[in-house]
């Protein structure tokens, strides 16, 4: 779990905003953000909304002036990096779309040119753990945070297609999103064919981003809260719940903490209505995730078989 406090002015002055999860747009809380304190955990901060633009990794400590570490004069979004206690593994490719020379990593690499004779890394597949990618050798220059998933290019989905209206899932499970950077309404896709997004999912007329869902073989645990900011009535889940009103007498769920496993949240009982994918981390407010729904009434584990 993590906690970071942002301040409008340098040297921890002006209005402040305390955050313990992802925030896609800081301007909903502060007019600008020029300094911060990380009290626990690790965060990536971005100089554009929706986790875009230049980014920087922040550990526990005080950051009195963003300009001193090469960022712009204000932070626009942030992402909590969940703890990982398992193995680390990724495969990197010299070209986009998993083409060209490739190598598997299980530890740090300070220079791919010297170690593998690779001129560049333009796509990768992260199987386990959380990684930082740097544009220069010896961990220098601009960086990019990658969590488990496939990265066909360091650019978003619109780099490949002007629009996206159908797809086939050949293996695995994916979440697709109607906005870039994993924002907006979303839908779980299992193996199969999807010929028309509008008729099959009730989504907008185009998909803008997608995320692969990693396999999870351990336990499942999450804590749901009736109100935002982890307040109000709360209950812990370790299995599916088709109706929090019937089971816990909770009127709705507006924030949560996911300790273990991958989960789907649904806006209506019995796993109906719009859904939201959650992985381990703290979700202080669902409105920060760009969803049209901010309250959810049922929860389901994403099992190994993606059923």
List keywords for this structure.
four-stranded antiparallel sheet, 3 helices, Gamma-B Crystallin, domain 1, 46% strand, globular, 307 residues, mainly beta, 5% helix
Description:
With 307 residues, this protein is mostly beta strands. The chain contains three helices and 25 strands. The strands form eight sheets. Strands 2-1-3-6 form a four-stranded antiparallel beta sheet, with no helix packed on it. The chain is globular and about 60 Å long.
Instruction: Report the CATH topology name of the largest domain.
Output: Gamma-B Crystallin, domain 1
* Strand line-up in the sheet with most strands: 2-1-3-6
Separation of termini?
29 Å
> Hey, roughly how much beta strand do the residues contain?
over 45%
Structural category: mainly beta
CATH architecture of the largest domain: Sandwich
Shape: globular
At the first level of CATH, what is the class of the largest domain? Mainly Beta
Q: What pattern of helices and strands is seen along the backbone?
A: EEEEEEEEEHEEEEEEEEHEEEHEEEEE
Superfamily at the CATH H level of the largest domain?
Answer: Crystallins
Tally the structural domains. 4
The radius of gyration is 20 Å
Largest sheet: 4 strands, antiparallel
Count of DSSP H/I helices: 3
Unreliable runs = none
Q: Mean pLDDT, as a whole number?
A: 85
